[in-house]
Amino acid sequence: MDTLTARFKLIVLPFLCICLLFLPFLQATDFDYCDNKGNYVVKVDGVDISPNPVISGKPATFTISASTGQAITGGKAEIDVYFFGFHIHQETHDLCEETSCPITVGNFVLSHNQVLPGFTPPGSYKLKMTLSVLI
């Protein structure tokens, strides 16, 4: 592997899993790391959901305030959705479409817009976001 390839090798943040817990018709924006002892490149400061509560069939914005100690040139965000513990949906987004790249050392915001289908039933939803970054 040449030096350039090694330098830009895709690094999966040591299993960074930002677990967002929310009820689409109630208000909750708690988050947890999948591994509380993990040494992550990205540190999450907070999560904001707007509107809160989310309304099915209407656009919603999920904003994650975060910081990094290393410059990030790109990557991907994988989102898994669970309903009462059952995996019901997965999507992957280019990290640079969710925030401005390159991401410099310091604070940044990751923002994702989503329209929940009109048939989305009320209940307990869990979103798990895994970031894989290029540094």
From TrEMBL:
<protein>
    <submittedName>
        <fullName>Phosphatidylglycerol/phosphatidylinositol transfer protein DDB_G0282179 isoform X2</fullName>
    </submittedName>
</protein>
<dbReference type="Pfam" id="PF02221">
    <property type="entry name" value="E1_DerP2_DerF2"/>
</dbReference>
<keyword id="KW-0732">Signal</keyword>
<dbReference type="InterPro" id="IPR003172">
    <property type="entry name" value="ML_dom"/>
</dbReference>
<feature type="domain" description="MD-2-related lipid-recognition">
    <location>
        <begin position="31"/>
        <end position="135"/>
    </location>
</feature>
<feature type="signal peptide">
    <location>
        <begin position="1"/>
        <end position="28"/>
    </location>
</feature>
<dbReference type="InterPro" id="IPR014756">
    <property type="entry name" value="Ig_E-set"/>
</dbReference>
<dbReference type="InterPro" id="IPR039670">
    <property type="entry name" value="NPC2-like"/>
</dbReference>
